[in-house]
């Protein structure tokens, strides 16, 4: 089942409220701390760094997925089911009815982030464009349930390139919120985190998850 890049983009856009909560403070402080670089330039480089890390992770995950899926049809179908289940979890996560992805973030913190964050000492203070890019690349590995859910999609990508593109589309969806962080982010944050907005966006993911599960089941029956 091929992944729709537009869906990955929308997933990032819909999860922007969560991104603002996790990374908005970092992006905002980076902009305010600069006296030599334009704030928007710093914000763009930071988010470009995130995008590059997401693309790298998507490539690696898709490489792993395609290696096993080509050898085992049941594994490929299992990935499709997993994608559907994670869409349900993402929907509930965005609606904040239950903390469906917190366990995944804790696992990512233990396995990856505790080691990656130590590289901060080689980048701080952020006083050049290269450091802003590197800092964004570092924060791209911050444990995030939405990012991990997008990576589950990358697992069933048809090629490593498409896995990278899936994560690029997801990252681009998060760009608008984090690019304006520290400027008009407060208004955007209020809109994205409004209960009605969260319920509407969350329901879209829940129903899309059901759709993926139904399609996969039909393939299994046929």
UniProtKB/TrEMBL annotation:
Keywords: Membrane, Transmembrane, Transmembrane helix. Pfam families: DsbD_2. The chain crosses the membrane at residues 43-63, 75-95, 132-154, 161-180, 200-221. It comes from the Bacteria. Residues 8-211 form the Urease accessory protein UreH-like transmembrane domain. The keyword Transmembrane applies. InterPro entries: UreH-like_TM_dom. This is Urease accessory protein UreH-like transmembrane domain-containing protein. It comes from Pseudoalteromonas luteoviolacea DSM 6061.
């Amino acid at each position: 089942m091929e992944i729709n890049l537009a869906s990955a983009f929308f997933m990032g856009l819909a999860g922007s409220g969560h991104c603002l909560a996790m990374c908005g403070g970092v992006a905002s402080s980076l902009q305010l701390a600069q006296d030599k670089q334009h704030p928007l330039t710093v914000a763009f480089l930071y988010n470009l760094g995130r995008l590059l890390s997401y693309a790298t992770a998507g490539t690696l995950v898709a490489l792993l997925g395609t290696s096993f899926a080509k050898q085992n049809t049941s594994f490929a179908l299992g990935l499709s089911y997993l994608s559907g289940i994670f869409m349900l979890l993402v929907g509930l996560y965005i609606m904040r009815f239950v903390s469906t992805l917190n366990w995944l973030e804790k696992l990512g913190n233990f396995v990856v982030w505790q080691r990656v964050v130590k590289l901060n000492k080689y980048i701080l203070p952020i006083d050049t464009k290269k450091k802003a890019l590197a800092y964004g690349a570092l924060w791209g590995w911050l444990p995030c349930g939405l990012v991990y859910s997008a990576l589950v999609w990358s697992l069933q990508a048809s090629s490593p390139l498409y896995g990278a593109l899936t994560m690029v589309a997801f990252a681009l969806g998060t760009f608008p919120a984090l690019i304006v962080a520290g400027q008009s982010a407060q208004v955007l944050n209020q809109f994205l985190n409004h209960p009605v907005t969260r319920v509407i966006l969350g329901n879209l993911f829940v129903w899309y998850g059901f759709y993926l599960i139904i399609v996969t089941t039909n393939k299994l029956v046929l």
